[in-house]
Amino acid sequence: MKNNDLIQVTFNPEELTENNAHLDALLASANKNAPGLTPEQRSTYGSINETNKLLVNKARAIMHENPKYVPNFVGLDEFERDFRAREVIEDMLRKVAQIQQKLNDTKILLDNDNYQDVMAYYRAIRYYTSEHDQEAMPLYNELKQFFPNHKNGQKEEE
Question: CA of 32: how far to CAs of 25, 26, 36, 94, 157, in Å?
């Protein structure tokens, strides 16, 4: 009986199809509506910090209360569209970050399960090799290369 299984995840074909369709739709929307910046452009434009977000929010409120002071070259309608789009994207990014964290956490547990199972398998193969099982020896030789620091008598795995 397996005692090191931290998580069981199974996707049925319908779930995989549905999840991938949603992800493809999100990616298509992002490709249509969002530019891809070069590293240089990201460095040039940067991202405003929390203090500057407060400035933008406060200035927005003041501009709406005192529109006569808004310069002609600042389009208030365009500013408002950009502001609302930024809020929508920020909300989307929070959701994407939650999804990414959940998937990363799940993958960590699955990776751990796989690693623990493989280490149990390796120890079994090593045992069969120590018992001079001829069929186990080539398997052991293939796997032991992943433990290059092993020298006779030293521990092979962590």
Answer: 10, 10, 10, 20, 49
